[in-house]
Amino acid sequence: MPVIGLEAEFTLYVDEVKRRPEEVFGNAQKFVRQKMLPRKGRSFQLPVGGAVYFDTGVIEVATPIIEIESGCAVRAGRTLWEQLEFVRGELDAWEIDHDQKLRLEGFSTHYNVSVPVERSLNSARLGQAARMLTYLLHPPVMLLAANKLSTGIGVRPRGDRLEVTADFTPDPDLMIATASLITGIILAVLEWPVHTLAEMKRRGLPVIAGFSPCKHTSRKGFLARHFCFPRNPFAADVNEPDWRLVDGRQRSLRQIALEIALPFREAIGAVTDTDALTHVFEVLSGRARSLLDFPTRPTRYEDAGHRIEWNRRNHRTLPRSRYEQIIHRVLTHRPIRIGTALYDPERMIGWHAVSFRNRRNGRRRTFTLDELAAQGVTNT
Q1: Is residue 305 part of a domain?
Q2: pTM for the model
Q3: pLDDT in the model for residue 315
Q4: Are residues 100 and 3 in the same domain?
Q5: For residue range 113-146, what is the model confidence (pLDDT) as tens digits?
Q6: Which of 8, 30, 59, 117 has its CA 20 to 30 A from that of 170?
Q7: Which of 173, 191, 200, 54 is nearest to 121 (CA)?
Q8: What is the rounded CA–CA span in Å between residue 309 and residue 99?
Q9: How far apart are the C-alpha atoms of 28 and 37, rounded to whole Å?
Q10: How far apart are CA 19 and CA 23, in angstroms?
Q11: CB atoms within 10 A of CB 40
Q12: Which helix H or strand E contains 354, and what residues bound it?
């Protein structure tokens, strides 16, 4: 099934000194008190469903894959913050045991959307879609996810998915709004017959004059960096109509973002809930504040996870997806029954499968999440 997933990276400070987590802990199991299921490499499956690992000097947490369906963007944002909340709690306990202060500074968030199989885009066409999406996504994602110190919004083709990179957003509601917009727009755009700048213009979507994306700083892909524009958009007044479009009009960044998002309102609504959809367009229309409306980057970036403000109760009460239920069942280490055999979970195999051992004969067997869903495995 097509799925989405979120990842977030955090810089670690020990007694206010920036440190590489692998030098402090070795691996993530050293600060998580519960035994975790191992994954590929040095990553581990967190007891709350996601994954944790160290990546080039940062602590990274990731959600499990979540099926694309109504509410999936809300589930993904909620789950990402649950992983952060758990990790922060384990670091609090480590602080007490070692008499050292640990601080997580928000660094980045990656929004992953898989390409539906029926689209069958080869690598060249997926790269073309990523480049066009860099033009299309950067204005609304800036308003929803960026701050005055941000430097870019990126889109990377990753084989069977597209990954949008942005700064970490220290607010669950804004992150969910961002995930909703990105997922809805990408899924709608993938239905287009071609993915070119000319197609964007043909559809009447605004393009900032003088903008041209650059290569992404990591892996293949494209970036709308601050120096790709006539001037730095992150430092600009988002309400000042002083950006010239290729069609000759003058618009503010906020107006441009809203003009891009409006044609995709139905597609965005199909992957989120009413509150999150409303929040997207409140921010883009100026009825709610963007982080770019603040004169400086909010201090909440500097100590992520200690204070989490869930402003919308329905985000916490939305039922879990089937994949989430299966993974939570696996993480309780309870056996599952397939046919007449009982299997004990051993490790996650990538994002899509789980390795089990047959309790009677000791043989290993791997089941995909789809196979487990077909067998009716849930967290009940």
Answers
A1: no
A2: 0.94
A3: 67
A4: yes
A5: 999 888 778 889 999 999 999 999 999 999 999 9
A6: 30
A7: 191
A8: 27
A9: 11
A10: 7
A11: 12
A12: strand 353-358
